[in-house]
Amino acid sequence: MQVLNNLKWRYATKKFDADKKINDEQLSCLKEAIRLSPSSYGLQLYKVLIISDLEIKKQLQPLCWQQSQITDCSHLFIFCSYKNYNDNDVDEYIKLVTTEQGLEYTTLEGYGSFIKGKVSEKTPTEQTAWLERQPYLAVSNLIMACAEQQIDTCPMEGFTPEDINRFFQLDNKNLNAVVMVAVGYRSEDDTAQHRKKVRKAENDLFEIVGS
Ligand SMILES: Cc1cc2nc3c(=O)[nH]c(=O)nc-3n(C[C@H](O)[C@H](O)[C@H](O)COP(=O)(O)O)c2cc1C
Question: For position 61, which CATH number holds?
């Protein structure tokens, strides 16, 4: 299966070729892969900053454990969860769905109330954890969309979120940086590409429940 070949081909790139950039068509495709990603109730409570400007990437590097992927990648995707949930987010979502699907707002109003009720059952800590989980499926889709086009990636949590939030003044926008993906092309010198991929054995990872 092609998906397995892609998963074997990809690796967390440690050294990007700073001279190789993805083109606009590839970027559009990657953005669409993110946009089409599933999220809880479909709310998409996150935003993605995309940075290709070298000067900005240079300023970000010290906030990201000095990792070279930040400056050498073609595009840096910073996934930011909503810092706080607001019932209004659900209203906006119901408005969007009903408009796009040509329905009366009232047909999905009950569903909106159901979502609001369920989210309100979470404690503030649980809400934050829930919000921070939201972008991860989009991260995975981005990585897989890249691999399909033989574009390299490195998912990254090696940064100080508070520093990134301060740098982009994300607090004011109700955003919180949770995970990044550096996207570009591997350097020929990146020794990590030759390492054997190591994963737990199937038996250690899966447990068949029932017959
Ligand atoms: C959420 C997440 C955060 C990660 N953060 C970093 C990072 O900051 N720097 C880095 O070099 N690799 C990072 N990695 C890469 C992992 O170390 C890597 O995926 C793992 O060792 C498996 O190797 P492979 O992806 O090359 O198969 C991260 C991976 C994930 C999923």
Answer: 3.40.109.10
